[in-house]
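Narrative summary of target 7.
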Amino acid sequence: MAFSPVPPGTAKGYTIGDVATDFELKNIDGNTVSLADYKEAKGFLVIFTCNTCPYSVAYEDRIIALDQKYKVLGVPVIAINPNNPKVQAGDSFEKMKQRAKEKNFTFPYLLDEGQKIFPQYGAQRTPHVFLLENQSKGYVVRYIGAIDDNYADADKVTEPFVENAVDAMLNGQEISVTNTRAIGCTIKT
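Modeled conformation, tokenized:
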């Protein structure tokens, strides 16, 4: 499956270089989470994902691996379920808690209650990744798109887009691919 760059200006929401606003969303443990809670973070992998999309399910282990690899380097995963649970019952808060426990999620799994955050970001699919860098001017968007170039088989990935972007950001280098097309299910509104 070919992943093509996303032409600039074709999606609403953030673009590369924009400063993302913080949010405060309910985590599966009942507490609220915001980016500001992570005082020492160098950045964040904000990933819009859910329980019910086969693409999101296919990526769950890779999302856990990304969190385990980069959280210790100051770039944790913050997963957000953007789906309306009235439309997609399998994405209810209770089902989110159940799925996170089954998979031993190592990261917050937040509910975009009222679906206010995903449109700000311009997320269109699950999963959809936004790499933010914590700079003096705020949370700067550095990468938007897919996790890698092969949702179906982690062993056949040739372009680990997110890893390449985070590694470049952490090393103070230019990110060579900043936009890819997110492949997955549409967000249920």
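The longest strand covers residues 128-135.
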